[in-house]
Amino acid sequence: MTLRIHLTAEDLARTRLAAAPRPLLELEIAVRLLQERSHPVRFDAWRSRAARHLPPRIGTLCELIPATGAAVDFLDLSGEGHPDDLVDRLRGTPADRVRKDLRQWAPGRPRGLSPAVRSLGRDPSLVGELADTVAHAHQHFIAPYWSRIDRLAQVDRTRRLQQLAGHGVERLLSGLNPRYITWDPPVLHLTMASGRDADVRLGGRGLLLIPTLFGSHYPALDDTAEPQPWITYPLHDDRPGAVPAVFTAEALTGSDAPPALTALLGRTRATVLRAIGDHPACTTGQLASHARIAPASASEHATVLRRAGLTAQTRDGKRVLHTLTPAGHVLLDAGRG
Description:
The chain has helices spanning about 10-15, 25-35, 40-50, 60-65, 85-90, 95-105, 115-120, 125-140, 145-165, 170-175, 245-255, 260-265, 265-280, 285-290, 295-305, 325-335, and strands at about 5, 15, 180-185, 185-190, 200, 210, 220, 230-235, 280-285, 310-315, 320-325. With about 325 residues, the chain is an alpha/beta fold.
């Protein structure tokens, strides 16, 4: 069974590539991945790291965003915009909207709703706590990897724009996700994780194609989105010999410093610089863990980097927090590039 999107000539003319992934849409997909154990090579290292930072109400968030199937409507994390703005929008959801959406969503839940979820419609303050949970989850599940995800997305977008320019929209649509998205003009066939079987007509609005790293298999879809329906497609790696499983694992959890940076600073110091860039405001103990070296060695290398103007230190009580300076960002980006 597939979901069939019928594209008219007007739809094809308005189909476009999103400029970048959407952080909270990545979070929604990541929350689903936390609830199952598929694709261990790609995601088990990330799952292990995420498990260290589970927010108090993660159970409620996972119930509202199940491993498969629709999430409750008021918890829509797919919108375009800064994560803080989307979290604030969720925080301000009216209580009557929460109650209405829960009533409509509940019949699809075979085990019913937990007391914690039912209480959301009775106590508006709990929606604020749910928004705090989303913010916490984004901070620990997505934000530490965002610079790498965004960089990979820009490379992927350049490649797909070249496909579009050189071979037309047919090559673009055919290459989105060949295992789960197939193009049989004028119909785009999507194999969904939910098994949804339906015909979708876009009414001339076209499709927005959104890249995703976490959504590396089944596509996600919102055919009711305004101003334009969207689907997700997985980022790919074009390096010779690379395979998606290795690519995804490296993108999310890789700790090796770029070779050019290693040649300049030495392997350990380059790894420390990268760890600070990937985990801003980390303590010395956290830095040692991220770089996989002893705390005394982490402190020594951080001091050298600070004296060179590449990092800065601030104090939070008795804790020393490490961040990159603008010069450190430039050097790290140059080494990665």
